[in-house]
Each structure stands twice: as C-alpha cells, then as structure tokens.
Amino acid sequence: MDEGENLTSFNNFLSIQQEIAAILSNTDWNNTKPLGKLQAVWREIRTIRESQQDQIKELIKAWQTYEHDVAGKTTCGQDAAQILSQEEAVQGEVTQAKQSLSRAKEEYEDVQQKIETSKAELNQLVQEREVVEKQTTQSLPKARYDVNLYMNITNIRWQFDSEPEEVKGFVCNKNDVKPFSLNSKQVSKFFISNYLWDLIEEDW
Questions:
Q1: What is the DSSP string of 131-174?
Q2: Structural domain of 112
Q3: Could you give phi then psi for residue 29, rounded to 5 degrees?
Q4: How far apart are CA 95 and CA 112, in angstroms?
Q5: How many domains does the chain have?
Q6: Which residues form a coiled coil (predicted)?
C-alpha cells in the first residue's frame, strides 16, 4: 500500500468520524441500545485512527533519519557498504511500517462495515418509530371514544392510581356507589369479568 492509499484511508477515517459525530449529536432516542452500539464503533474508529497517525509519523521519521544519515555519512567519506547496510535497515523499518498500515486499513474496512450495519439498524428504528407514531395518532382518538363509551354503558369508574396487580374502582348509579378491589394475581380474569358484570347487572 503506497503513501497515496495511506492518505486516502486516513481521509476516509476523518469522513466516517464526522458522519458518526453528526449522527450521535442529532439523534434523540428513548431506546439507547443502537446509540450505545454506535458509540462503541466510534471509540474503535478513534483507536485505529490514532494508531494510523502514529504509524505515519514513524514512517516519515524513518525516511528523514535515513536521508540525514546518508547525506552526513557520505560527506564524511563513509564507504558504500556501510551506507548500503544502513539503507537496508531503514528499508526494513519502512516495510514494517507499511505492513502495520496495511493491517490498520483492514481494521478500518471492518469498522466501516460495522458502521454501515449500525446505520441500517438506525434507519430501521426510525422507520419503526414513524409507523408507531402514525398508528398511535390514528388509534388514540378511537381508543378514547371506546373507553368513554364503555364507561357510560357499564357505569364503571376505574381507580388508576392503584397497584399494577390491583383491579380497583367502583360502579355508580343514581342510588348508590359499589366499590370493588380485586387482586389479579389471586383471581383469574374470568372471575374478575364475571364479578364486575354481576355488579353491573344488579343496577339494570
């Protein structure tokens, strides 16, 4: 992988980083699972980017050291064999740096795939939320109408501040009020239904 490819990979990192930063800053979710996943991918990108920066610095430093040594040693009359030996050593360092950059590129591609997957999941979540909001907007008026209708027919008034397992309220008519309190963990739904109907039928 030559220096042009290295620079392209590094620029791609910056582009992906900015894109993820925009997603994280502009997304407001009650469900934080996708957001947490994106944050994990974001941290992985930063780690790989920092690694690439260090490797690029090492590569530049190795070349600068090599050029400086060759220029200085040649001036001092150093023989060609010693210069060649040092050149081979520097070339070895450069080769190792390029191999490290190649591995970093593979890691980058893996992270990029994770990003695409996370973005697809986010888009799916957005679509599902829009569907739920639309259904809620359409069904809520009907649900309210049904509740009011049942309340008027049965004269049942529910006590909504009771415990989750407690079915509590009262049946009211012109003459009296009949309270009820049943535990859904202790009796069946069938029993509760029959019990309430019995209370209602007494007034009909």
A1: HHHHHHHHHHHHHHHHHHHHHHHH-EEE-TTS-TTEEEEEEE-S
A2: 3-148
A3: -120, 140
A4: 25
A5: 2
A6: 87-135
CA atoms of 114 and 39, how far apart (whole Å): 12
Residues 95 and 186 in one domain: no
Domain boundary among 133, 148, 163: 148
pTM to 2 decimal places: 0.34
d(CA 90, CA 100): 15
Bridge partner residues of 177 (DSSP): 172
End-to-end CA distance of the chain: 88
Token output for 43:
């941290």
Chain mean pLDDT for the chain: 71
156-158 vs 177-183, strand pairing mode: unpaired
Question: Using CA atoms, how far apart are residues 179 and 80, in angstroms rounded to an integer?
Answer: 106
**Tens digits of residue pLDDT in 42-71:** 676 677 667 766 767 776 776 667 666 656
pLDDT tops 60 at residue 86 = yes
